[in-house]
Design a protein that fits this description.
This is Dihydroorotase. The protein has about 475 residues and is of the alpha/beta class. The chain contains 12 helices and 19 strands. Helix 4 crosses helix 6 and helix 6 packs parallel to helix 7. It binds N-carbamoyl-L-aspartate and zinc ion (ZN) (2 copies). The site of one zinc ion (ZN) has 6 residues, from loops.
C-alpha cells in the first residue's frame, strides 16, 4: 500500500496563539507545518518544500486541532434513511471534525460489545473521521437494567462514554450504580437531563409563549432538578458526570455550584441553544423542534456567559438527522432534533468569537481539546506541533456566506440555518495526515477510504516497531 503524500502548510496562524478575546486574528505570527505519514513532523518559519509535497497556501487561515464532537447521532444501525456512519462522518469532516462520539440510540441500541464494535468498524472503513461509539447506560435504553457496560469498555471499541441520550436515566439507583461502575475505568456518564414525569407530552419550552401557542410546555425545572440530583450522586460516588445539551440559566447555576464544590462534572451546550430562541416556534416550522427545547433570550445570554466563564466546558452539536417526512408535518407529530455538524463552527464564530466571549485558543479548547479529554479520546493531538498526530482543521474566518442545502453533506436536511448568512468556512480538514476536505470541498469516498487504509496500515507498522 502506498503511503499518503506529505503536506506542507504555508503561513498558517495557530488558534492556540490567539489567546486574547476580541483580538484580530492577524495578531498571531504565521508558521509552516509539515505533515508526513499520520504526524506533524515539522513546525517552523520558511520550511523548504520537498519534491512530492502537496503545498497548501494557508495565508489568512487559522489552524485548530481537529474538532471533536462528543454528541453526534449517526443513526446506523437501524435508521439508515436518516444517516449512516459514512454520511454522518462526511458531514463531520465538512464541519472540520476529525473525531465524533456516536450516540447509542440506534436499532439495535449500542448496548453490547458487538454493536459498538460494528459502529467503530464502519467508521474506520469510511475514513472521514474517528468514530468512538457511546454505550447505552441501560439495556435497550429502557431505563430498567444496566447494560453490559464492562463488556463494552473492554471490547475493541474501548467505550468510555455511556449515555441513554434521547432518554433520561431517571431511576436514581440505576444512575448511582452506573456512576460507580464507570468510575472503575475512569469512564463517564453523559446524562440527558429530562424528568419524564414533568415533560409528558411536552412540545416546547414552558412559559407564556407555550400558553399563547397552545402547546404543552417543557419546564426548565425538568432539566434542572435532574442535574441537581445527579450532581449529588456524582459527589457521593466520586465518579465523573457529564451533562448533555444544557439549555437553561438555572442549569448553569446548578453546574456552577457543583464545580465550586469540586464535583467532577462537565457540561456541554449545543450551537443552537447559543443562538436560537423559542420565538421561532411561532412559525410552527418543525425544524425548530428540538430536545431540550429552544429557550428564552435570557437563557441564551446565560449560556454564552457560562461558556465565557468556563462553567460550560464544551460545545457539542447533538447532530440529530431526521427524514423530511418526520419534519414536514404538524408540530405535535414532528420528531425532535436538528442537524448541526456542518454549521457548528460558523455558529460558534457568530455567537462566541465575534461577540468577544472567547478567544480562538478558548474555542480550540471548547471544540477540540476538552471534548477529547472528557471522552478519553486516544491519538488526538494536544497541540499543533512536531511529533503530534496530524488531526487538524484550517478555518477561513473572513467573510460570510449563505448557508444552503449544498452545505449539508449528510442524508438529512433538517437544519434551522438554511438561508441564514453565517461567518467562516472550513477550508481544509486533515485526519491522520490526509485530506478529508480540500479547498472547501469534501474529498471523494474512495480516495478517503484508501487514504484511511494507508494511514491505518502505517499505524500498524509503527506499533509493531515500538513493541
Ligand atoms: N436532540 C433531539 O432533539 N433529538 C435527539 C435525541 C436527544 O439528543 O435527546 C435524537 O436522537 O433525535
Ligand atoms: Zn438528549
Ligand atoms: Zn442527542
Amino acid at each position: 500500500m502506498t503511503a499518503n503524500p506529505s503536506i506542507l502548510i504555508r503561513g498558517v496562524r495557530l488558534a492556540s496563539e490567539l489567546t486574547e478575546r476580541g483580538a484580530d486574528s492577524a495578531s498571531a505570527t504565521p508558521v509552516d507545518l509539515r505533515v508526513s505519514g499520520d504526524r506533524i513532523v515539522e513546525r517552523g518559519v520558511g520550511l523548504t518544500a520537498q519534491s512530492d509535497d502537496r503545498i497548501i497556501d494557508a495565508a489568512g487561515l487559522i489552524a485548530l486541532t481537529g474538532l471533536v464532537d462528543l454528541h453526534t447521532h449517526l443513526r446506523e444501525p437501524g435508521f439508515e434513511q436518516s444517516e449512516t456512519v459514512l454520511s454522518g462522518t462526511r458531514a463531520a469532516a465538512a464541519g472540520g471534525f476529525t473525531s465524533v462520539f456516536a450516540m447509542a440510540n440506534t436499532l439495535p441500541v449500542q448496548d453490547t460489545a458487538g454493536v459498538v464494535e460494528q459502529v467503530q468498524a464502519l467508521g474506520d472503513a469510511a475514513g472521514y473521521a474517528t468514530v468512538r461509539p457511546i454505550g447505552a447506560v441501560t439495556e435497550d435504553l429502557a431505563g430498567e437494567k444496566l447494560s453490559e457496560i464492562g463488556a463494552m469498555a473492554q471490547s475493541r471499541a474501548q467505550v468510555r462514554v455511556f449515555s441513554d441520550d434521547g432518554k433520561c436515566v431517571h431511576d436514581p439507583l440505576l444512575m448511582r450504580r452506573a456512576l460507580e461502575y464507570v468510575k472503575t475505568f475512569n469512564g463517564v456518564i453523559a446524562q440527558h437531563a429530562q424528568d419524564p414525569r414533568l415533560t409528558e407530552g411536552a412540545q416546547m419550552n414552558e412559559g407564556a409563549l407555550s400558553s399563547e401557542l397552545g402547546l404543552k410546555g417543557w419546564p426548565a425545572v425538568a432539566e434542572e432538578s435532574i442535574i441537581a440530583r445527579d450532581v449529588l450522586l456524582a459527589e457521593h460516588t466520586g465518579a465523573r458526570l457529564h451533562i448533555c445539551h444544557l439549555s437553561t440559566a438555572g442549569s448553569v447555576e446548578v453546574v456552577r455550584w457543583a464545580k465550586a464544590r469540586g464535583v467532577q462534572i462537565t457540561a456541554e451546550v449545543t450551537p443552537h441553544h447559543l443562538i436560537l430562541t423559542e420565538e421561532l416556534v411561532r412559525s410552527y416550522d418543525a425544524r425548530y423542534k428540538v430536545n431540550p427545547p429552544l429557550r428564552r433570550e435570557e437563557d441564551v445570554r446565560a449560556l454564552r456567559q457560562a461558556v465565557a466563564d468556563g462553567v460550560i466546558d464544551i460545545i457539542a452539536t447533538d447532530h440529530a438527522p431526521h427524514p423530511l417526512e418526520a419534519k414536514e408535518c404538524e408540530w405535535d407529530a414532528a420528531a425532535f432534533g436538528m442537524v448541526g455538524l456542518e454549521s457548528a463552527l460558523p455558529i460558534a464564530l457568530a455567537t462566541l468569537i465575534q461577540e468577544g466571549h472567547v478567544s480562538w485558543a478558548e474555542l480550540e479548547t471548547l471544540l477540540s481539546q476538552r471534548p477529547a479529554q472528557i471522552g478519553g479520546l486516544a491519538g488526538h493531538p494536544t497541540a499543533l506541533d512536531a511529533g503530534q498526530p496530524a488531526d487538524l482543521v484550517l478555518v477561513d474566518p473572513s467573510g460570510t456566506s449563505t448557508f444552503d442545502l449544498s452545505d449539508l453533506k449528510g442524508l438529512s436536511v433538517n437544519s434551522p440555518y438554511l438561508g441564514m448568512e453565517l461567518p467562516g468556512r472550513i477550508a481544509f480538514t486533515i485526519r491522520r495526515g490526509y485530506l478529508t476536505v480540500d479547498a472547501g470541498e469534501l474529498v471523494d469516498v474512495d480516495t478517503v477510504a484508501a487514504a484511511g487504509r494507508a494511514a491505518g496500515a502505517q499505524q500498524g507498522v509503527a506499533t509493531e516497531v515500538a513493541a
